[in-house]
Amino acid sequence: MQKALETLTAGSRLLLDMLWRNGPLSRAQLAGLTGFTRAAVTHMADDLIGRGLLLEQPAEKGRRGQPARPLALRGAMGYAIGINFSTTYAEVGFVDFAGKLLDRAAFAIPAPTPEQIGMRAVAEIERLIKRHGLARAQLIGLGVAVPTDFNTQGVAIAHRFFPEIAGPGLAGRFSASLGMPVVVENDGRSAAIGERLLGIGSAYRTFMLVHLGHGVGGGLVIDGAPFRGALGNAGILGQYYPYGQPRPSGTDLLETLQADGFPATDFDWLENAPEACRPLVESWVQRAAAQLSPELARISRFFGPEAVILAGRLPPATLGALAAAIDFSAILRPLDELPITPLRASELGAAAGVIGAAAVPILNALMPGIPVNGKS
Q1: Which residue has the higher pLDDT, 92 or 228?
Q2: Which of 160, 299, 309, 356 is most buried (most C-beta within 10 Å)?
Q3: The domains spanning 2-76 and 201-350 adopt the same CATH topology
């Protein structure tokens, strides 16, 4: 699979990238998006079909003249693996070449280190490979979503809960423990990529994702592609909510529940939380909404995305309640009558992170010039 991608021309990579970002397209649509002639698109498409990377879908019905046959990525051509983790558990997921989630599984970890995560992930990876009859030769790569930011040299600056993953060489440590090359990406940006592929973000070309997990993070997708910024950390939001004070983060919700006697040790506990904690969760939602509304309203007005997507490690029901409680109009309407960016809650929940982690090596294989962790 890697060899099939390595020998592609820049033009062919651009066609694949357009289909990755936009879904199935006709040859005429691809010509319009890329600026290539229709003849050039046809020549490159035929080559990609011959390589097994593309397939033609059935002709569109109800159109005048000769109906177009949209081109689409051939998912069965290959797959990538994604890993996402918290303090006590991790997830592994498989995504095919077209961006479809094939399977995912969670497993406990004794410590959130590359060595412990990798040692236990290997067994899950082997089990899922056998379950789906996948070949090693079809593997595109493995991505890990990490709760860190990165400096301009690509050195991990980890969240305070994960001191073991701070410093240089993070991708190498994961590679050594997993026995294969690994690319690492910030967990908020991984979630944004996951939303772009399989979530509500697929309806938008430009959106802002707010990631509520161990901190208050985020990710930007501009014109269908993840945007990291010149320094590699575009989209982070934690600086608006200082430590030592109540914050609208997932960790803050866990600590709020713990302070009231609930054993909310990690985010997976929230998935089956007892009814008795509902009033406390509802109170936290109202407080977090009041904190998020002003900053997100102003940032979204400045950035101008098609949508703000609320995502992260909280259960979908909690994210939905929080999205409903956030009110941009109360902040912006006194100022003007300009359109207000809609805010929506992710429907993928925590799965967005592992989907996005798996998508990163596919994007890197298709478009190797996309910067990773502040470096090209």
Answers
A1: 92
A2: 356
A3: no
